[in-house]
Amino acid sequence: MDYRTLSIQELHSLLVSKEITPLDLTKAVIENAKKDNNNAFEYIMEKEAIEIASSLGEPEEHNLLWGIPFVIKDNFSTKDVPTTASSNILKDYVPIYSSEVYQRLLNSKAIPIAKTTLDELAMGGSGTTGHLGITFNPWDKTHKRHVGGSSCGSAAAISAGIVPLALGSDTGDSVRKPASYAGLVGFKPTWGRISRYGLFPFATSMDHVAYFTRNVIDSAITLNLLAGRDNKDATSSFVKVDNYLENISNGIKGKKIAVIKEIVDYTIDPVIKARFLETLDYLKMEGATVDFVSVDDKLLRAIYPTYIVISCAEATSNNANLDGIKFGVRENGNTYQEIMTNTRTKGFSELIKRRFVIGGFSLLKANQKDLFLKAQKCRRLIVDAYNNILKEYDAIYLPASPTVAPLFGSQSEKLSGEYLVGDNHLGVMNFAGLPSITLPIGFNEGMPFGANFTSKAFTEADLFQIATALEKHTGLKNIVAKEDK
Ligand code: GLN
Prior knowledge:
By secondary structure, the chain is α/β, with parallel strands linked by helices. About 40% of the residues lie in helices and about 15% in strands. It starts with 7 loop residues before the first helix and ends in an 11-residue tail after the last helix.
C-alpha cells in the first residue's frame, strides 16, 4: 500500500481498524527512508523503530499518534541514539538522555524513524552546511534546488512522503521558511508553549521547538501532545493548554487580519505576489476582514542585522560547552587551551566560525553598547510594532518567502530590501515569541510556495482555525513530491 500522501488522521483510522499494523507501516517507511536520495538523514533508526513497532499492543483509538511514524532533527537529544547536530564536533556523540518532545512522542507510542540532517548546529537557512553536505529539495528531481534550512532533512523527508510528521527547530524561520519551499505546513508555537528540554540551544531567547506536517489538522493534533509545562525546562509556560482541535473548523467569520504592505511589496516573484493577493479574497469570502497596514521600512530593514547580532551572541555563549572535553570529538593538545583550540578549529565549519566571531565581537565589553545592546533595543522596537498590529487584529498574514526554493549558486543582493525584509521577516516572530504557521498556497514552475499567519501569544487555537479556513480554499493538503511526479 502506498501510504505516502496519508495524513496522521488517515493513518490513525487505518491503524485503529487494523487495516494496517504499526509493524507493516514501519517496515514500509524504513524501506522508503533507505531509498532517500535527498540527504535527509543522519541516522535511520531501523532497529529501534522495528523494536518499538513490534511491541505495541492493541490500537489506542483516542491516541491519534499511536503507531504514527515521525522523524526528528538531529539537534534533539535522543537517548542511546547518535545525535550530531550535523557537526563534526559531535560526530559519534550518543546522548544519555532524551529531549522532552521525543520522550512525549515515544510515550504516546509514535514510531521514531530517523534523525534528520540540518545546517550545522541549526545555524543557516540553506540546507548546505551540515557535515554530510547538501540536502536537496524533493520537488526538484534534478537536485538543483535548496529545500531550505536549517531543518532541511526534516523538510525533505516529509515532503518526499516518507513520514507524516517531522520535528525541527525554529530560531529565525528554520521550519516556517523550508515549509514554503517544500509545500508543507510548518508551525512554531508561542515561546514557552513546548518544552525545549534536550533541544541543543542555538539562541535561547529565540529558539522554539517547531515541526512540519502536511495539513493543518495534523499540526494541531501534534500540539495537543507536545504543549504544556515541563519542570525540566524553566522557560516552559504554565499557561493552560487548549484543545487545539476543538474549534479548528469553526471558520473565521468576523476575524480581523492584517497584511503588512511593505513585506508584500518586497515579494519579488510576481507569481507569488499575485497568488498571495488572490488568497486575500478567500479570507474575505470566509467572512474575515483584511486590511493592509504599514510598518516603518527602517524597522523592517533592521530585522536581519538585529537577528544576526543577537543570535550570534547567544550562539557563541551557548556553544562554549563544545570544547572537546565534555562531549564529542577531542583533538590532541598538551593543555586545556590547546585541546580546545584544536578541537574547535577542526570541528566547526567556516560558517560557524564566522558566526562565533560576530558573536564574540558584539559581546566584547568595548562593543556591547554599539552592537549587542543596540540590537536588543531594535528588537524591542520591532516587536512593539508587530504587537501594536496584533492589538487591533487577530492575525498578521504575509508571504512566507519572496521566491520559490532558490537554485544552488544563485545569489541574492544581501543589502536589498528583497533579501533583508522579503527573505528574513519571519524572524520577527522569534523576536516576539509569537505563534506562527506557514502553509502552501500555490506553485510556480512546479515548485511550491507558502504564506504565513501569526497571532497573539498563546492563541494557537485561533491560528489553526484561521489557517484551516485558508487551506479549505487552496485545497493544498497532503501534497507530496513523489518519485513518479
Ligand atoms: N536562517 C536563519 C539563520 O541563519 C534561521 C536559523 C534557524 O531558525 N535555526 O540562522
